[in-house]
């Protein structure tokens, strides 16, 4: 990626997007295909397994939040020390990262192994689904060492400017998972048929493969124990906000699953299938978020407020155009989309109804996703966090519960109304920002 001033400062916004978005979209596409293919094979094997994946999804998000949030703290500290040429200190932080990854893995593995049965029973009354949740959840959590180490080592490499190795590792890990899924689930090539356990083993194997690919450059020797307290404090001072932000998504998905479990397991499965498709349709929007941060950060620092505003205009035009494609798919072909994963008529019936309500939310969702990124890039971290937490904690779950009290069909109104409210509040913050900078804009 070019970093000279003529790039972010003077290059056409569309050209910047076209230059830096494709690598981001490629990595996200592979991850989206992994999520879809994983559910595809599990759905072909059993309906209970598909429901189990929906239930275990918040736990996986929580692991990712903890691992990535810690990695962000490590990444930021390493970059800081490299910037002031304290290379030994940067190596020290990188070495502590591996130890933290092991500690997180052990704590998560033990906790999830012991609590998984209770968690499963909290989400469903089906003995078959409970058994699948316990099987998949225990394997995925106990075998998550690859997820934690890969997340840490990836951030170490990125802090040193190596973006290529982590991308190759993530793609290779996802492909490994995709290839192993049918082999282990259905027992191909003489391998015993493992069912949903096979899907879990495929997942953790892909994570380990990715970790091994970044280990050579990412692993650093641990410093002496006396260095740990201060460095860990610095790491989590920067990492905890990111952990909390990502963990809010776990909260709202867990909450919505709990609400839908009061109606049926099929409703939980239908919501889970939405999240599978969501990862695919949100790739362009996620790439836009990644692109606008450096553009706006650079131009805000350079006091080019008009260019920041133009960046947002272009981002909205692209975001709405791309998400409109998602809206058309969710409105007009929800049944074929659901049929990719399941033949259960009840899941399809519920999903068709839900997808059409959710599809309406895609256009206002552009603002709900882009305004927090703009605020983050302009140093308004509190407002950015407020928007995200408001959306995931104070709107999704309470509104989901409220609407569900009027009847199951009303539950789906949660999605468009949450996105509209979040976008309105985000626009108010955005408008206030430009009012405060009016003098700069006219210079």
Defining key terms:
443 residues; mainly alpha; 19 helices; 86% helix; disordered N terminus; MATE_fam; transport; transmembrane; ion transport; membrane
The main β sheet shows up as: none
Low-pLDDT residue intervals, each spanning 5 or more residues? 1-5
Q: What is the N-to-C order of secondary-structure elements (H for helix, E for strand)?
A: HHHHHHHHHHHHHHHHHHH
The radius of gyration over CA amounts to: 22 Å
Shape: globular
Beta percentage is: under 5%
Cα end-to-end separation:
30 Å
Please, how many domains? 2
Characterization of this structure:
Helix 3 (47-83) runs parallel beside helix 6 (145-159) and helix 4 (87-123) runs parallel beside helix 9. The longest helix has 37 residues, at 47-83. Residues 1-5 have low confidence and may be disordered. This protein is globular. The protein contains 19 helices and no strands. It is an all-alpha fold. It folds into 2 domains: 29-264, no CATH class; 282-443, no CATH class.
Write the layout of secondary structure elements.
Elements: H1 5-10, H2 13-45, H3 47-83, H4 87-123, H5 127-142, H6 145-159, H7 164-186, H8 196-218, H9 228-261, H10 265-281, H11 283-301, H12 305-332, H13 334-339, H14 345-360, H15 362-377, H16 381-404, H17 408-411, H18 414-436, H19 438-441
Helix pairs in contact: 2-3, 2-7, 2-10, 2-11, 3-4, 3-5, 3-6, 3-9, 3-10, 4-5, 4-6, 4-9, 5-8, 6-8, 7-8, 9-10, 9-16, 10-14, 11-12, 11-15, 12-14, 12-15, 15-16, 15-18, 16-18
Membrane topology: Multi-pass membrane protein
Family: Belongs to the multi antimicrobial extrusion (MATE) (TC 2.A.66.1) family.
Protein name: Probable multidrug resistance protein NorM
């Amino acid at each position: 990626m070019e970093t000279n001033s003529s790039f972010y400062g003077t290059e056409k916004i569309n050209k910047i997007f076209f230059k830096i978005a494709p690598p981001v979209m490629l990595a996200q596409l592979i991850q989206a295909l992994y999520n879809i293919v994983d559910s595809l094979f599990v759905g072909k094997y059993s309906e209970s397994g598909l429901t189990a994946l929906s239930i275990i999804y918040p736990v996986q998000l929580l692991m990712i939040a903890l691992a990535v949030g810690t990695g962000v703290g490590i990444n930021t500290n390493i970059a800081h020390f490299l910037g002031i040429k304290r290379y030994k200190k940067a190596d020290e932080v990188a070495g502590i990262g591996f130890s933290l990854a092991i500690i997180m893995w052990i704590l998560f593995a033990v906790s999830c192994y012991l609590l998984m049965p209770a968690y499963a029973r909290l989400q469903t009354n089906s003995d078959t689904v409970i058994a699948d949740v316990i099987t998949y959840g225990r394997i995925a959590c106990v075998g998550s060492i690859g997820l934690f180490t890969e997340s840490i080592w990836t951030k170490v490499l990125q802090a040193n400017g190596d973006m290529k190795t982590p991308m190759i590792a993530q793609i290779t890990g996802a492909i490994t998972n995709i290839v192993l899924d049918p082999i282990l689930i259905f027992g191909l090539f003489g391998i015993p048929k493992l069912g949903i356990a096979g899907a879990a083993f495929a997942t953790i194997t892909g994570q380990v493969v990715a970790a091994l690919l970044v280990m050579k450059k990412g692993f650093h020797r641990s410093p002496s124990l006396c260095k740990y307290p201060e460095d860990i404090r610095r790491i989590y001072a920067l990492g905890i906000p990111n952990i909390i932000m990502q963990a809010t998504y776990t909260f709202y998905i867990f909450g919505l699953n709990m609400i839908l479990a009061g109606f049926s397991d099929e409703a939980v499965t239908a919501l889970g299938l939405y999240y599978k498709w969501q990862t695919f349709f949100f790739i362009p929007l996620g790439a836009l978020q990644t692109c606008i941060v450096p553009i706006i950060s650079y131009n805000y620092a350079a006091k080019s407020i008009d260019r920041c505003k133009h960046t947002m205009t272009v981002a909205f035009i692209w975001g709405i155009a791309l998400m409109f494609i998602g809206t058309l798919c969710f409105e007009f072909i929800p049944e074929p989309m659901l049929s990719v994963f399941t033949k259960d008529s009840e899941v399809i019936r519920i999903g068709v109804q839900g997808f059409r309500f959710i599809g309406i939310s895609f256009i206002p969702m552009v603002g709900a996703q882009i305004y927090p990124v703009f605020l983050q890039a302009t140093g308004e971290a509190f407002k950015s966090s407020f928007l995200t937490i408001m959306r995931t904690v104070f709107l999704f779950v309470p509104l989901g519960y409220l609407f569900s009290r009027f009847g199951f069909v009303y539950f789906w109104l949660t999605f468009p109304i949450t996105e509209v409210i979040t976008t309105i509040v985000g626009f108010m913050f955005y408008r206030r920002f430009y009012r405060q900078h009016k003098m700069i804009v006219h210079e």
